[in-house]
Amino acid sequence: MTSLPFDPGFNPYPATRYPMTARNGMVNASHPQAAAAGLYALQNGGNAVDAAVASATALTVLEPTANGIGSDAFALVWIEKEKKLYGLNASGWAPEKLNAEKVKATGASTMPVLGWTPTMVPGAPGAWAALQKRFGRIPLTTSMAPAINYAKEGCPVSPILANMWERAARRYAELKGKPEFEEWFRTFLPEGKAPKCGEMVRLPNHAKTLELIAQTNAEAFYRGELTEKIIRDSDELGGYFTASDFNDYQPEWVTPISIDYRGYTVCEIPPNGQGITALMALNILKNFEFKEKESLDSFHLQWEAMKLAFADAKHYVTDKKEMKVTPEELLSDSYGKGRAKQISKTAALPGPGDPKGSGTVYLCAADKDGNMVSYIQSNYMGFGSGIVVRGTGIALQNRGADFSLNTEDANCLKPRKKSYHTIIPGFLMKDGEAVGPFGVMGAYMQPQGHVQVVMNLVDFGLNPQQALDAPRWQWMKDKRFTVESGFDPAILRQLAALGHQIEMQYDPTSFGRGQIIWKMPNGVLIGGTESRTDSSIACW
Q1: How many Å apart are CA 426 and CA 249, to the nearest integer?
Q2: 3-state secondary structure of 78
Q3: What percent of the chain has pLDDT over 70?
Q4: In this predicted structure, what is the pLDDT of residue 8?
């Protein structure tokens, strides 16, 4: 086992807490009971994969403001015995009957955010079944038992969750009375208001659906009773789904993409996910030396590299079958060097280059045998589409909202196409060995969070908890950045003098929520968990 880039012990760099250590297993999640669900799986004969499934399914109950049964999902799975990293793409595709022309015929100039139109076939139930079938040690009925129990018996609302629920209630208030959204109100606002911190929430329909998914290994969702209910609502309330959209869907096992960053291999899921955005930024940044974290040059270079990476990602990334360039072209050393040379001494507005010419939950798990999982699932934009299938608790994602209606765009909506996808799990390796999983959730913050976490660890020697706690920045648009409190005001003034437009943002949830597990040379696990949310580590 290779050495780690940081000192896991005491470090004077500020942190809200210190990293945790364990030997037999660790599960890090954005909700304490979800982490506990993963630990339950480990202690009942499961491995890291079973723990990830247990935690993921529990989060559909515990944090419905960010994910649900109707989510999409991605995973990176390290199997220690094989010394191999596997990728799973469980993002859904557009209905066969839906295309850009149909949406424009309704009078829309962009894809709707709410309602049936942006809903795609959900991939998360398929992900749970695929992970268990290939790598799990215990049946879904065991790993999903905590989630089912939480939904049946109820669970208290945590502080951040209560805040997110209240925001959603205000946002969806204008949808009240519209038939397609009535089940959302019955399910998530049964008393006409969002639950407050400490109140108990029970989701009985959700429990029945999870039981059916567990008993049938998700077949009921794609080729059975639940499929019929989804198609019924789609037909009656304005959707585009057909049974074949679900019958034909399968999660896809993929080969992860990666770059070398200062001797470490940073791994991501290939497109249609935006993990390549983080890799493109790091591929630019590795052409510079960073001697200190808190400096004008450090932030200026990171910000300019991030804008360049997003310019390429938004221009090229979509369903892999439709991409006009390959990931290898976008991640080549020569292209990274060329983009690095385009960074000037002032803030710029970059466009895409030519490589041929040159609302989400994240969790991670590890077991005593060295297996590790980096997993993420999301409904997008909070509760997703606002559509809940009647009598099931299935809240459908709205991933189609990221499609373009411009037929010239790479990411234009087409039947059975997968959209540009924001959710991304990350993984770090060195010399062919696993160092561990990491991730930062939060829409377009995610690749930016990945870049900052990797640099905090590799360039600046912070431990996992410090790497997560460090104040974050986020590129918003053009030359606009938001930063967290904690940034040095003098450096912010210097950055502004270079043309960066900077705004202080005091809402911590807007900067993502992350988790990290690293494996030390002696096999001990060291974990960090997000200080910006109700997160927790469960270990033994």
Answers
A1: 25
A2: strand
A3: 96
A4: 58
Q: Residue 358 pLDDT more than 60?
A: no
Q: What number is the average pLDDT over the span 251-263?
A: 97
Is the predicted pLDDT of residue 248 greater than 80, yes or no?
yes
Instruction: Give per-residue burial for 43-80: e unless 16+ CB within 10 Å, then b.
Output: eeebbbbbbbbbbbbbbbbbbbbbbbbbbbbbbbbbbb
Q: Residue 1: its pLDDT value, please?
A: 42
What is the pLDDT, as a whole number, of residue 308? 96
Question: For 474, phi and psi rounded to 5 degrees?
Answer: -150, 125
How many whole angstroms separate alpha carbon 498 and alpha carbon 480? 12
What is the share, in percent, of the chain residues with pLDDT greater than 90?
A: 86
Which one has a higher pLDDT value, 508 or 511? 511
Say yes or no to pLDDT of 5 above 80.
no
User: Which residues are within 8 A (CB) of 120 and not within 5 positions of it... i.e. 6 or more apart?
Assistant: 72, 91, 92, 93, 94, 95, 397, 399, 400, 418, 419
CA distance 201 to 95: 33
Is residue 120 within 8 A of residue 97, CB to CB? The reply is: no
**For residue 340, what are the contacts with CB-CB under 8 A and spacing of at least 6?**
284, 285, 287, 288, 305
- Is the CB of residue 259 less than 8 Å from the CB of residue 281? no
Whether the per-residue pLDDT at 11 is higher than 60: the answer is: no
Structure tokens at 487: 């940034």
Q: What are phi and psi of 88, to 5 degrees?
A: -125, 120
Query: Which strand (E) or helix (H) includes residue 149?
Result: helix 145-153
Selection from 98, 131, 143 nearest residue 252 by Cα: 131
**Rounded mean pLDDT of 107-125?**
97
Phi, psi of 215 (to 5 degrees): -70, -25
- Whole-angstrom distance, CA of residue 429 vs CA of residue 80: 12
- How many CB atoms neighbour CB 11 within 10 A? 16
Longest CA pairwise span in the chain (Å) = 61
d(CA 487, CA 298): 13
Radius of gyration, CA atoms only, the chain: 22
Please give the sequence-ordered ranges of beta strands (E in DSSP) within 421-463, or none if there are none: 426-430, 433-441
Mean per-residue pLDDT, 475-490: 92
- Cα torsion angle, 51, 57, 59, 62, sign: negative
- Proportion of the chain in helix, strand, coil states, percent, rounded to 5: 40, 20, 40
325 contacts: CB under 8 Å, gap ≥ 6: 316, 355, 356
Average pLDDT, the chain: 93
Kindly list the domain boundaries of the chain, sorted by start residue.
1-471+509-527
Contact predicate 360/446, CB 8 Å: yes
Which residues are annotated as catalytic?
360
Q: Which of 460, 380, 466, 376 is nearest to 424 (CA)?
A: 376
Quick one: average pLDDT of 245-256? 98
